[in-house]
Write a structure and sequence with these properties.
Strand content: 25-35%
Shape: elongated
Oligomer: single chain
Order of helices and strands: HHHHHEEEEEEEEEEEE
Low-confidence stretches: 1-12, 14-22, 41-51, 126-134
Radius of gyration: 52 Å
Helix content: 25-40%
Distance between the termini: 143 Å
Length: 342
């Protein structure tokens, strides 16, 4: 490959020394590469856009690629040098060696000081974690809530199990200079009891929580499954110790309380009998023959009649008098007995 002549270099930069004209060289060489591509489209001839033939030294594709890469690299170095001179006019001196280690007695003093600082920080953290200045946490709040539930429940048979709702262990309220006051929001102990815990000291605040209440004591448990409206007897139940939701006072423990009672809802076998599952039994059924009882001071009249509806104790029902066929309204007093005004 022969070196380019002076005529061939006109309009193009010299490959070996384009530093001063690096940007212009890149543009000229890129135009030369475009010219070669256009020439291949016309049967292999190099047809420049200006109409002049390419220099012979640029017709070789390898030479053209090398020249273009070198010109681009030199343009990048030129631009980078100009940017560096504008941003960093003075070079930063970098030390060639690190300072030597301090003397042994100085290093030993530094270690002792660091150990003392760490010990003081640990003691301060422990004091803040254990001292009252940190405030009231979840443990004190739950303890006050449990005490309030036990006080409201009073003396109950069996055992009482209280499970406070989980509070954030990071909870810290301002320290209270008075005993915490806990109160039930609705005044009743339920299976899920909601309470408020209040500070009534110099700093006042209130927080709400809940406690799950369970009891364990002997209660009446169904021997077999019982349907709704079933009339209950002592033979339907047995007395067993069970752990039940809420207070034990909400459940029946005495079979004598089953007299004239029926079930409001079905009861599964082995289920404890709650008081709210009971309803007064029907003393009179529709179509049943009853006794009409009329009273006044010194007078009592009894007549036969037919009930026109079901009735429990103290219910008002309609009854037809079989003698006069009149329909009257009376109060259910007992099984098969309806009292009517005289």
């Amino acid at each position: 490959m022969s070196a380019p002549s002076s005529t061939e270099e006109q309009g193009l930069c010299h490959v070996r020394s384009p530093t001063a004209r690096a940007p212009q060289c890149v543009m000229q060489l890129e135009r030369a590469a475009t010219t070669r591509a256009r020439g291949r489209a016309f049967g292999g001839k190099d047809v420049p856009s200006s109409g002049r033939a390419l220099p012979s030294w640029l017709r070789d594709p390898v030479v053209l690629a090398v020249a273009l890469a070198q010109a681009r690299r030199e343009r990048h170095e030129t631009v980078s040098a100009s940017w560096h001179s504008a941003c960093c006019p003075e070079p930063v001196a970098i030390p060639q060696s690190l300072p030597s280690a301090p003397p042994p007695h100085v290093a030993r003093a530094h270690r002792h000081a660091l150990a003392l600082v760490l010990a003081l920080l640990a003691a301060h953290s422990s004091t803040r974690a254990e001292g009252p200045a940190l405030g009231v946490g979840a443990r004190l709040i739950n303890q006050a809530a449990e005490n309030a539930v036990r006080a409201e429940a009073g003396a109950t048979p069996g055992r009482l199990f209280l499970t406070p709702a989980p509070l954030d262990p990071r909870l810290r309220l301002p320290a209270c200079d008075q005993p915490l006051h806990a109160f039930l929001t609705d005044g009743q102990v339920r299976q899920q009891t909601t309470l408020g815990v209040r500070c009534e000291g110099s700093v006042r605040w209130t927080i709400y929580t809940s406690i799950n209440v369970e009891s364990e004591a002997p209660v009446l448990v169904a021997r077999t499954a019982l349907p709704r409206d079933a009339t209950l007897t002592a033979a339907d139940f047995q007395l067993l110790t069970r752990r039940v939701p809420g207070l034990i006072a909400s459940y029946l423990c005495d079979p004598a309380a089953l007299v004239q009672q029926r079930l409001r809802r079905p009861l599964a076998a082995g289920e404890a009998l709650a008081i709210d599952a009971l309803a007064p039994a029907l003393l009179i059924h529709r179509g049943q023959q009853v006794v009409l009882l009329a009273r006044s001071p010194g007078i009592e009249v009894r007549m036969a009649g037919v009930a026109l509806g079901d009735g429990r104790a103290s219910d008002q029902i309609r009854v037809q008098n079989l003698s006069s066929q009149r329909i009257v309204e009376g109060t259910v007093r007992a099984d098969g007995v309806v009292e009517v005004p005289l």
